[in-house]
Amino acid sequence: MQLDSSIAAVITGGASGLGAATARALAAQGVRVALFDLNADLGEALAKEIGGTYCPVNVTSSAEVDAGFAKARAAHGQERILVNCAGVGGSFKTVSRDKTNGEIKEYPLDNFERIIQVNLIGTFRCITKSAAGMLTLPPLPGGDRGAIVNTASVAAEDGQIGQAAYTASKAGIVGMTLTVARDLASEAIRVNTILPGIFDTPLLARAREEVKAALAAQVPFPKRLGQPEEYAQLALTMITNSYFNGEDVRLDGAIRMAPR
Fold first, then answer.
1. I need a surface site. Which of 11, 121, 143, 160 has the fewest CB within 10 A?
2. Which CATH superfamily hosts domain 8-88+116-251?
3. Residue 70 burial by CB count (10 A; 0-12/13-18/19+): exposed, middle or buried?
4. pLDDT given for residue 76 in this prediction
């Protein structure tokens, strides 16, 4: 797929971090970008910066996702690109014992459900609604009708202590990638997933510098945190390379996460 001003894109979680870097990279190629996010201040500021459109969207709500796509398409036309970056985290052990009084605590299931709803079901919800719109478009000269990039995590394969829900949500994205790619292959829509390692995103913004340094030291090479622009670079490769389909790719400096 050749990127230019004739192409529209939607990025969930697009107001910051990996999504924002991808939005800037696509806009730099002339793509018309719509940002789905809950942070209106960041979303509106970035949309103004790149000449895009901000859409207030909670990906757990079908009504809000529908409204977001309607607003994006009214502004830019039917998108050919969807990049799913919206996600949340959280850490609880499956069961744990209080160190002071020995009380046994179970994983709070409402938290498990919240993470699955945002990360996994939210991703699939946006895929189905975007792909349905893509089917209304003719294929481009190179054969593509659309391209979808999802965001999983190395936790899908190397989940650490306390990450049961997060791991399950991200492993679900990895697990459905090939199946969804096969579902959409006859319609010329490609689907790929990136598994980022430890990236310097807003999730780490509150971490102390020594904590960030310790995390960076775990990376074999290069010994640093990943930069959102590096995620964006891979996302654009998945979008522009028409033979890239049905793949789950780690982007992690060769890290393999320890149990904790």
1. 143
2. NAD(P)-binding Rossmann-like Domain (3.40.50.720)
3. exposed
4. 98
